[in-house]
């Protein structure tokens, strides 16, 4: 727990005994449990089955992508349905560096994410000219432009896609272990990065922009620069998830990489778990993975079930499952708010 005196009259703060609380004992216990779980998870390749590692990589990709969408929309107020553009770009950049530049694909994963972030800078010039629903549809159109463009490049297999051949010289067990460790590192970095950012002044500025851009700008916040930074970071995370996913999948195609289903699934996870909360994508990703693993064979009924679950949650748990638990029992694993306590 960290507490600092409230700015103002020193005698008033001292006499009232009021402090600003930014953490709780439950938060400290959760941190200790998380570190212990991380240490156990890091040893999984030494004793676990390969199928477990593949499942974790899949969950990690879902989670990182959903967390970035939550940062963009839940905290920044920029509702995009075209984040799959950067997911696909990250995957294809990784493949190009591996297959054509002779680079180790695992080294190419972060470089693919960086390439997606760099592409987001000129793309933002077009996207930020749109507002509200037009912004959402515009980002989808941009993603479709990338999909059609990649589908017309024969060097990467065109519309049918291609295989990541750069991993042929690496053994299966080594490949699966390294992919798993990279996925684990990405999850930890994503949670820690978003948490520290939201606790900073820049995080407060972003949430102020989400609530009212005009009021935020009147208080001296550089609105456009902050939105551009968050848009680029969200693209970086989406590109990282895409590069990591296709390193594990070994094959990529435009329809798989740039499918709108990626953003639809991210929205589902964030809404189910709780939008505007770090814990939301974690809960949502676990629920979505479980539903996908055990019920995806049901075909149309599975998709109808996802839709029904989303409707029920939005009607009866308007802040998501974790938001409901937080309001009812005060649960908060990653507190970013500041509370006045006496």
UniProtKB/TrEMBL annotation:
Coiled-coil stretches: none
InterPro entries referenced in this protein's UniProt entry, alphabetically: ABC_transp_permease (IPR001851), LivM-like (IPR043428)
Pfam families linked: BPD_transp_2
Main location: membrane
Gene Ontology CC entries for this record: plasma membrane
Transmembrane region(s): 29-47, 59-78, 108-128, 134-157, 178-198, 228-247, 259-278, 298-317
Intracellular or extracellular location(s): Cell membrane
Keywords for this protein: Cell membrane, Membrane, Transmembrane, Transmembrane helix
Molecular function terms, GO-annotated: branched-chain amino acid transmembrane transporter activity
Membrane topology listed for this record: Multi-pass membrane protein
Domain of life: Bacteria
Protein name: Branched-chain amino acid ABC transporter permease
